[in-house]
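agent: user wants the structure for HAD hydrolase from Candidozyma auris. delegating to structure tool.
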Amino acid sequence: MFRAFSRRLNTRGSSLISDPLKPDRIAKSQADSSFPKPRFVSFDLWGTLYTPKKPIAESYYEISKNEFGIDKSLESLKAEFPEVHKELLIDFPNYGKYSDHITNCKDWWSELIVKLYGLPHYSENEKSAKLCDRLVEYFSSSEAYILFDDVKPTLEKLRKNNVRIIASSNSDDRVFPIMKSLGIDRYFENPFVYISYDLGTEKPERAFFRSIAGELYKIDKANEPRLSMQEFLENSWHVGDSYEKDFVGAVKAGWNGVLIDRPKTSVFFRNGPQKASVSNDCFEAQSADSLDSDDMVMIANNRVVVSSLTEVLRLFELE
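agent: tool returned. relaying tokens verbatim.
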């Protein structure tokens, strides 16, 4: 049995009405015991589970220059890549999924590459086609990405405790070969990898989170006919490195949100963990054994900030 949990809210100097998710207005709280076993734990991918080994523009520069003899400066690639990427998303939204001109994600990235380098179209030029193939393949494997050290221990512990693990990412279908190459695909049972390319909506839109929750809710409700959506969402968790897309998006959709802040640069860690105190406020209770620590900051009932994924395990007493 999991113990009941209590919260100590310190609302002085903060507003929970006008903008409850603004960092400087979030009321801090503390949990003196763990949360119930989650229905599922959702993870963002890029920046949360894995990250590029080196800056994107640097990889483009090294491959194009060293392997194809293309003389385009690193500085120009750094400056132009974001612009070309933005323009292409406007011309062909969602990696060209709804375009008659682009038939798959690889073609979308190939369009970006030839436009970025000012090359002949890949459909008409062999060198262009080979460069596109090389860069797309590079960014679809562990050659380009590395896992954070806390990823596999966390996923392994969740799996051993029969916690459903899902991935929720704003990405195209390259995530599948990336996950396989990094050796983490085995933790995510098919079809529990949800990407914006397939869903047709992206984080932080509520439709993104609701689409996922709706599908998983049907699975659990089949075994628990009396289960309500509210009860289901109370034990649904999402972990990600983006404050707006992951943290705020999840909370506004009714999920529990966990912000992963490994370098501890967010306002939450700058303020430090909240200390237990005695108060006459009927909404406050002294906490002698808080979950708050140097690596975890509790924020209201469904918001947590951690510096390591292993801290997520502490929320559910799975250490």
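agent: one observation worth passing along. Residues 74-91 form the longest helix (18 residues).
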